[in-house]
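User: Hi! I'm working on a homework problem where we have to compare a predicted structure to a textbook description. Could you give me the structure for the chain below?
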Amino acid sequence: MKIILASASPRRAEVLRAAGFEFSVMPAEIDETPNPGEGAVELVERLALLKARAVAGKLRQPDAAVVLGADTVVMVDGEILGKPHTFEMSVTMLRKLQGRWHEVITGVALLGLNSAHRGVSATEEMVEHETTRVQFSRMTDTEIEEYARSVEPLDKAGAYAIQGRAARFIPRIEGCYFNVVGLPVALITRMLARLRDGER
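Assistant: Happy to help. Predicted structure tokens:
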């Protein structure tokens, strides 16, 4: 069954490709503003599903497919850290993370689709999440500012990329490594198997 990745993230595409999945990419454009009082798990699961639904709504092809949506946040001391868009935001987030453990939470949504008389209809929706604990080493102000000046922290949850230069500051993790990159492939594999078997 064809997989459609509802994400513009090159990291998510790289993870899927390396795991041997065949897929196409169709980015979703949605409002990612958290709802008042919304927790991290609720947020990532809701946004992952909205992304998958947004892409499914654009499809006008007869082939059966699975739309894959995902959303990732970092949480430290109950505070949700999204994606920084400036140097100052990156510095602020890195200072909160350095020398501490935090959680990376990714919501995953799968929409099983089949052809309909008018367009494509969803036959089943599945939503789950994966959590990984990550430890950051203590960083000096110079290290934080030098890393924040690189292009790497921008547009990444928590202002870092574990597969990049930030690896120097991450001595250990507990859980799925690929979840920290942005796509928990083991969870997705299990969900796809259940979707094929008609289970929830």
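For your comparison, note the following. The CA atoms of residues 72 and 106 lie 4 Å apart. The beta strands are 2-5, 23-25, 65-76, 79-81, 101-115, 120-135, 172-174. Good luck with the assignment!
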